[in-house]
Amino acid sequence: MLTSRLAYLLVTTSSRTPVHASTVDGMPNLPDVVLWSIPAFVLLTVLEMVSHRIHPDEDAAGYETKDAATSLGMGIGSLAFDALWKIPIVAIYTAVYELTPLRVPVLWWTIPLMLLAQDFLYYWQHRGHHVIRVLWACHVVHHSSRKFNLTTALRQPWTSVTGWPFYLPMIALGVHPAAVAFCYSVNLVYQFWIHTERVDKLPRPFEYVLNTPSHHRVHHASQGGYLDRNFGGILIVWDRMFGSWVAETDRPVYGLTKNIETYNPLRVATHEYAAIARDLRAANDWRERAGRVFRGPGWQPGTATATATATASDTTTTTPEVTA
User: Fold this and answer.
1) CA angle at 77 for the pair 184 and 90, rounded to the nearest 5°
2) In terms of Cα–Cα distance, which of 195, 171, 197, 198 is closest to 183?
């Protein structure tokens, strides 16, 4: 999931100071890895587009102009909305950081530990955004494309305020908010390249430890056996540990279990929230209303569990498809 974008929600850090530098007014000076990676994002996307043109694969989802434009529009829009969400999130993180007596220094040997901790929490953030419908309403944006290419990585939600609670443990343990932002940005940059069909399975040791294009293709697939699998950010070992890993065997079919028929960025960003509102209006009691919001996206009254990666279009027969 490139899905919740903490790197853009927190304080902006310097891109010129090495990671072993001292702090300035208590804020660690860390490189802005997202900013430095933008040229690589552009270059890799262009190369992928050219490769699909020169060596087309009839079985691959490939590129489609409207879909790619929608993904880019969602990415640009997310930057603007993230600037708004940044204000309350930074305030909360700063308050927690000031209240805790603990402090984790930003040193060459603590950075890998912070990255490991952030990746572990990202796994639970990502998994939570698949199994709780109100969180899925944010993350569904990232899964709404029926293509799987590098522009899909840019299809980000406009309501990414839902991710901040998952990283409070790091702040409470004394990790500076800017360091958390740095770790998340590293995770964000890593996940860009795994949104592709042009890279086959890597050698077995890499596939066992790291999140790879093969693992992430499974995550974006809509087939039943692939639903709600492979939540890892950088490492796939969390999925192996907690029972959510599955290997890529059948060719993935990308998108949602019932796709939205629109390229309108506003509707892509809000369609699940609108479906939740419709379900709340039609609910018979408060227990059902709570289930419509806090249980899985496929939950129905009288069912104990639900398929998490169902969309709002699957959760009620009264939800019409959205059109452009």
Assistant:
1) 45
2) 171
Taking the model in full, what pTM does it have? 0.86
Q: How far is residue 157's CA from residue 271's CA, in Å, rounded to a whole number?
A: 11
Residues 1 and 139: beta-carbon distance below 8 Å: yes
Burial (CB count <10 Å: 0-12, 13-18, 19+), residue 274: middle
pLDDT band at 58 (very low <50, low <70, confident <90, very high): confident
Calculate the alpha carbon distances from 307 to 7, 162, 216 in Å: 30, 21, 19
Token representation of residue 284:
């018979």
d(CA 71, CA 234): 22
Nearest-CA neighbor of 167 among 275, 73, 90?
Answer: 90
Mean pLDDT of 56-64: 82
323 forms bridges with which residues in the sheet? 261
